[in-house]
Amino acid sequence: MNRQSTIESGVVRDTSSKGTVPWYMPGFGNDFETESLPGALPQGRNSPQRVNYGLYAEQLSGSPFTAPRGKNERSWLYRIRPSVRHVGRFRKVDIPLWKTAPHVVEDVISLGQYRWDPVEFPGEPVNFLTGMRTVTTAGDVHTQVGMASHVYLANESMDDDYMYSADSELLVVPQDGRLEIFTEFGIIELEPLEVCILPRGMVFKVGLLDDTARGFVCENYGARFTLPGRGPIGANCLANPRDFKTPVAAFEDKESPCRIWIKWCGAFHVSEIGHSPLDVVAWHGNYAPFKYDLRTYSPVGAISFDHPDPSIYTVLTAPTAEEGTANIDFVIFPERWLPQEDTFRPPWYHKNIMSEFMGNIYGVYDAKPEGFVPGGISLHNCMLPHGPDRDAFEKATTESWDPVKLTNTMSFMFETRFPQQLTRFSAETAALQKDYADCWSGLERKFDGTPGLK
After folding, report:
1. Which of 109, 241, 321, 416 is deepest in the core (most CB within 10 A)?
2. Using one digit for the tens of pLDDT, what is the confidence trace for 224-264?
3. CA–CA dist 125, 145 (Å, integer)
4. Is 386 a catalytic residue?
5. How many helices (H) and strands (E) does the chain have?
């Protein structure tokens, strides 16, 4: 295959895959190969005695070496310097509002139903790292179970700052403002209604393509996100593998003072280095970042009666050893048709063993037409009842059975098997709606002992 490359401001990237979807390779879980200079990728072997261009061969493993073939995750990277040269002496630093499980604040009550307005930007400069605000934590990072949910706020780019998490993979969900995420594997441009996965142990930095950016992050301590089984749905619909996009190789050739930040066992450490760590000239493997456009999700639902479980809208799932029980499910509520007859169409009232963290990307959520605004958040913890507010209930029980299309809507849910603990920030921020539970106060007694609808 003929390879071409482009060079802009010290960034070299592969253009051989450029076409209708430039800079990306399609497919979920594929074994990819890509190089940003011709001949940089060894053929027929992983670690030759000498790599072209004087590169170093290095493996990044996302699973134990002995994991079954279908679950074995690794990539070979061919880089200007080995990673051991990208770190020096560490010093411990504090990122005060990024918290890690187990994190229980004794005087904060996590039992309840909670909702927040969009979190406001601080008055000082913040980037993707320093602007992280943890809302909830669950599980235990030391045993690699559970998660944390965050809001990120950024008004400046990470120009000379780079980071990776040894604790988790990161699911990034933009709500406002576009991002350029430069990773060891290549560059991902991300906008609202797209999401991306940044694997555990992979170095990256986040730049802004707009003046500011705000969104959500799910930090997954457990098994990697994968596609859910479709079961009787069959081979198509939901999130189709071809719509996942992995970046082609790109590297940054920069010899100037830089910092690399590492999150490890819930603590942050920084190391000063004299060059960019994003120096991977070529790579191959199946452990890599990717992005996904939520607008390509093909929802499936009831076409006769009843409202299916929200799990029917699962995009990605991080499984546990217990079959059917997720460490995290990433679920979306996109635009879709509702044709059910004689059916209460919004989400029904329920208590759930799973804990539900929701965010609104844009538009109106049908179960909460008021108060749950774009950029807003809600939390309904394990076995806490929740459901539509009074206005949504009255509308759903009196409207016609004619098919209706939900438009101007995109919300999502980080759902986990573990109870989610509030942080002090989320419990005390001005964005917390202290009167949220009042949205159900108008639900009236309708029972009068006689049959028939009221």
Report:
1. 416
2. 999 999 999 999 999 999 999 999 999 999 999 999 999 99
3. 33
4. no
5. 2, 31
413, with CB counted inside 10 A (0-12, 13-18, 19+), is: buried
Q: Which of 86, 307, 380, 386 is catalytic?
A: 307
Q: Give me the chain's average pLDDT, please.
A: 92
394 closest CA partner among 442, 359, 362: 442
Stated as kind and residue range, the H or E segment containing 393 is helix 390-398
Spatial distance between the Cα atoms of 7 and 290, rounded to a whole number of angstroms: 23
12: pLDDT confidence band, cut at 50, 70 and 90? Answer: low
Judge contact between 376 and 365, C-beta under 8 A: no
Peptide bond into 102 cis (omega under 30): yes
Q: How far is CA 431 from CA 137, 219, 396, in A?
A: 18, 22, 29
The burial class, CB within 10 Å (0-12 / 13-18 / 19+), for 312 is middle
The helix (H) or strand (E) run that includes residue 394 is helix 390-398
Q: What is the pLDDT of residues 73-87, one digit of tens each?
A: 999 999 999 998 878
Q: What is the pLDDT of residue 23?
A: 87
The predicted pLDDT at position 22 comes to 54
Query: In whole angstroms, what is the distance from residue 260 CA to residue 424 CA?
Result: 28
Q: For residue 245, what are its two tokens?
A: 């996009």
Residues 6 or more apart in contact with residue 100 via CB below 8 angstroms: 134, 137, 141, 148, 167, 219, 263, 265, 266
346 pLDDT tier (thresholds 50, 70, 90): confident
Locus of tokens 């605004």:
373
Two tokens, residue 285: 């493997």
**CA 186 to CA 414: how far, in whole Å?**
27
Residue 198 is predicted with a pLDDT of 98
Mode of pairing for the β-strands spanning 74-79 and 258-264: unpaired
